[in-house]
Amino acid sequence: MTTTMSTPATPSYDDVVARYEPVIGLETHVELGTASKMFCGCSTTFGAEPNTQVCPVCLGLPGALPVANEISIESTVRIGLALNCSISPWCRFARKNYFYPDMPKNFQISQYDEPLCTDGWLDVDVDGEVVRVGIERVHLEEDTGKSLHVGGATGRIHGATHSLVDYNRAGIPLVEIVTKPVEGIGARAPEVAKAYVTELREILRTLGVSDVRMEQGSLRCDVNTSLRPIGTATLGTRSETKNVNSLRSVERAVRSEILRQAALLDVGERIVQETRHFQEDTGRSRSGRSKEEATDYRYFPEPDLVPLAPSAAWIEELRGALPELPSQRRHRLATELGASDHDMAAMSNAGVVDLVAATVAAGAPAAEARNWWLGYLSQQANAADVEPADLAIAPEQVARIIALVADGTLSSGLARQVVDGVVETGQDPDRVIEGRGLRTVNDTGALTAAVDEAIAAHPDIAEKVRGGKVAAAGVLVGAVMKATRGQADAQTVRSLILSQLDAEEWTWRT
Amino acid sequence: MAITRDEVAYLARLARLSVSDEELDVFARQLDVIVGAVARVAEVAADDIPPTTHAVPLTNVLRHDLVTPSLPRDKVLAAAPAAEDGRFRVPRILEDEA
Amino acid sequence: MSELTQLTAADTAAKIAAGEITAVEVAQAHLDRIAAVDDRTHAFLKVDAEGALSAARAVDDARAGGKPLGPLAGVPLALKDVVVTEGLETTCGSKILAGWIPPYDATITKRMLDAGIVILGKTNMDEFAMGSSTENSAYGPSHNPWDLDRVPGGSSGGSSAAVAAYEAPLAIGTDTGGSIRQPAAVTGLVGAKPTYGGVSRYGLIAFSSSLDQAGPIARTVLDAALLHEVIGGHDPADSTSIDAPVPPVVLAAMAGAAGDLSALTIAVVGELGGDGYQPGVTAAFADAVARLESSGAKVVEVSCPHFGYALPAYYLIAPSECSSNLARFDAVRYGLRVGDDGAHSLEEVMSLTRQAGFGAEVKRRIILGTYALSSGYYDAYYGQAQRVRTLITRDFAAAFETCDVLISPTTPTVAFPIGERIDNPMSMYAADLCTLPASLAGLPAISVPCGLSEGLPVGLQVMAPALADDRTYQVAAALEASYGRPLIDEVPSL
């Protein structure tokens, strides 16, 4: 079923959200960063030769049995705690039965009606406003292998003549985080979805449980979307969009699904409950298998694994050992850095919160640190097409440069040159200043000599200045600056020139 | 409790068994008798009786997160009905992933 | 028949250790015996003469090198084909696994090899251990050495036939609902199902995961105990394995052989007898009870009201679990593939392969299990069966408040003729009536010969609380001793 019905005229997004309320839900799969797989000792290293990280257990060979990885359980509980969930005091794994060639046992060990973590929430910031996203459940399961479809035009399953299966990924621990339906967010649904995944990714990174790389599939997102006419209460039929593999796509997927569904509803078509596959290239989704013909998964408790019973003491121990979470950190930093919500949002968007904090910690005033990182340093990073954190300059070095500006050693222009020098050479600011002779020239004697030279070289201009045409002094200032290779302070030079020529700065008199 | 021929046909599809028509007749007849007999479990256990899923009262049996050697790929693929480029080769797949 | 094949396992090991005979001689004698009689018993699916002789040689070399030998070093064994053996074809009695050479050993395979046990080959069985007669084997039935027209029981019927025909002194069976005890009973042997979790299931091809247990089949209680201690004990590769010492079954077998049971109260289960039990079975059982009483045991009768529901509960739980366990046989990674002609899709190839590779009983149980687990029926069937399981466990617990062990006939009838029940699944299922309660409760149970009925062996089952396997051996050994010599001595010599 790849064709859609004749596509009605697409209404505008603003028009759609004025008439329909989108309700979204997100299912996020996170591959945990354990050394070994969920139920066996095979390595989880990404990118190995196909079928070299497999054993009787993860290949589902007859007779093999699973034993759960303790770190995967611990990581799942920590994720649950970070998402304000209740941790189940007793729960079991369950078998989800369906046939698919990348699933070696033709059942997936998962959790069904007894997830490890339930009923939490996550606050996300959308343009300075907090939206609380309810967390339905966090559970643990095993990942599947990967199929390569051969013989078709595009490497897709349709049109392929055969497929090739690699089970290296089969059995890697996978945590599924499911939100409750997110309602009442109207037109911001796409931004909320993106902000949720962004914040979740930050949390997972902070917990250190996964490398959360969407492009490698260690963080995968399915987005459920439905529409209902504004003012009505019952949820509309939802679609589930899979394959959403970047933060940008999360936003695009929700937006395009809102538009697609609205176009259908507008002409009286009904929405089919189905799985759709997001296409990164077009930003649209195509229909997959309809859930109405979905298989009966015949869940039952996994007899090969005994129940999990995390003790209250262990849960509290894990809770106590949680690292500072991104939201707590932002709150603390806002206070420490004296930053407004707007400043924090700007720093967060630019990816410099940590850098500013570290620069302040190295002794720089907060406002200076913020200006440097949001200004010149962000520009340099942008120009080099890297993240600010990847610039070859350390926050301590930035702090040193700020200090040198403050004590007058550097002018702001020189300071920028020092930054460039540090980035180019990897040397410390003081070495760069030394090596390139970038110190501000404060020696009035040396400057006076340069001024005298400039006056001698431009007698006509000197005469004009003496005659009261003060504006002409700019030429002499430029000559002195050139002679001192920019190390003089322009304002000082100007004063010196005027005093040598007995001219006075023209001022407006009332 | 009765089980119909259609139900047996549906279950066979779910279990990926391309059962023949004759077999379907036989199974439907036999399963109807068996289901009738096993349905007796409904006579006794009340809802307040907890189900036993595991005969041993163990919990939290876990392993350390240690990497152990995998199987050599030659050995893994030697058992495969078909292999290509280090992978298991299968005929074209009709259905998308669940 | 060479005298070497008539020795007990204990004597064989002792003589090898003492240098009176060599392990190679013993292995060769058994290989010769297999060559002579297996065309009639069809106990073995695969004989590994080369592997057996090289394992035997290793034991002889170790002895010559002065290394200490284990209590069963050099003793030959017949291994049920449900147990995975690295490099040795393992089919589980099914066409779907024909030709499969496993790349790994089961934990119990490893333990036996490490103990110097000589694996002669793999024995026949009902396909995927589903059956009570070996008639469900894809490779044809095994025959009972007591009467070749009768079944040797099942599903471990190849193992029981092999030991009863002196093709091996020891065998491994597996028991899900009675598949060690019932074949042992109908062939005049000792067969023990350990406490669930007592023996590793790693490398046992799963039928019903919450019930399966491997255990010994032997001609004497002591031999069974010796093998039990080799295979038993905690295995970190099996999450359901109990981390406790193996119950002292060898000591218990020795103590029991002294014949004094005066410290024990033995309870006869009222529900496991009466109508439907052959008179000869009932008579042999009654005689055995009298013998136990003569040994000093106090014999009482108890009622276990829910045992009558064991059969329906079992035939919901085991098929449900098997429908999931057997899903992996899909023509992708190993085993049979049918219909891969470029025209059929993978889905069709899977269905054609499973249709061609599984026998009727396996398909019947997969369909039944799929039904019992499907949405809408789960609570009424699978869920309810698991509640019955709780009730049966409670019956046992109540009974063990008043006694040390429970006893019953192992089977309601002696070995039935080949072909008699194959078309009637329910009558076949009835063969497990007495053995199912202990399976569902995960308790240890042993079957020990208790006389003959019309020339065919009858078995008595002893059941004990979890981890009290030693008690079952003690009672079995006392009963065995009361007959003076093993009943198996009366088996026809073929």
How would you describe what is shown here?
The complex is a heterotrimer of chains A (510), B (98) and C (494). Helices cover 38% and strands 19% of the residues of chain A. Chain A is of the alpha+beta class and 510 residues long. Chain A has a 9-stranded mixed sheet with strand order 3-6-7-10-1-11-12-13-14. A 3-stranded antiparallel sheet of chain A has the order 5-4-15, with no helix packed on it. In chain A, α3 runs antiparallel to α4 (247-266) and α10 runs antiparallel to α11. In chain B, 35% of the residues lie in helices and 9% in strands. Chain B has a two-stranded antiparallel sheet. The longest helix of chain B has 18 residues, at 21-38. Chain B is flat. Chain C has an 11-stranded mixed sheet. Chain C is globular. Classes of the chains: A alpha+beta (510), B alpha+beta (98), C alpha/beta (494). The interface between B and C is large, with 57 and 71 residues. β9 (162-166) of chain A pairs antiparallel with β3 of chain B.
In short:
The complex is a heterotrimer of chains A (about 500), B (about 100) and C (about 500). With about 100 residues, chain B is α+β, with helices and mostly antiparallel strands.
Of all protein chain pairs, which has the greatest interface, and how many residues does each chain bring to it?
Answer: B-C, 57 and 71 residues
Gyration radius over CA of chain B: 22 Å
Integer-rounded radius of gyration of chain A: 31 Å
Structural class of chain B: alpha+beta
Task: Reconstruct the topology from this structure.
The complex is a heterotrimer of chains A (510), B (98) and C (494).
Chain A: H1 13-19, E1 20-31, E2 68-69, H2 70-82, E3 86-87, E4 94-97, E5 107-110, E6 117-126, E7 129-142, E8 146-150, E9 162-166, E10 173-179, H3 189-207, E11 219-229, E12 239-244, H4 247-266, E13 274-278, E14 285-290, E15 300-301, H5 312-320, H6 326-336, H7 341-350, H8 353-361, H9 366-384, H10 395-406, H11 412-425, H12 429-436, H13 444-457, H14 459-466, H15 473-483, H16 490-500
Helix pairs in contact in A: 3-4, 8-9, 8-10, 10-11, 13-15, 13-16, 15-16
Chain B: H1 5-14, H2 21-38, E1 62-63, H3 73-78, E2 83-84, E3 87-91
Antiparallel strand pairs in B: 2-3
Helix pairs in contact in B: 1-2
Chain C: H1 9-18, H2 23-41, E1 44-47, H3 49-64, E2 76-80, H4 107-114, E3 118-123, H5 157-164, E4 170-175, H6 181-186, E5 190-193, E6 213-218, H7 221-231, H8 249-257, E7 265-269, H9 279-294, E8 298-302, H10 310-325, H11 346-357, H12 360-373, H13 379-399, E9 405-409, H14 425-429, H15 436-441, E10 445-453, E11 456-463, H16 469-482
Parallel strand pairs in C: 2-3, 2-4, 7-8, 7-9
Antiparallel strand pairs in C: 1-3, 4-6, 5-6, 5-10, 9-11, 10-11
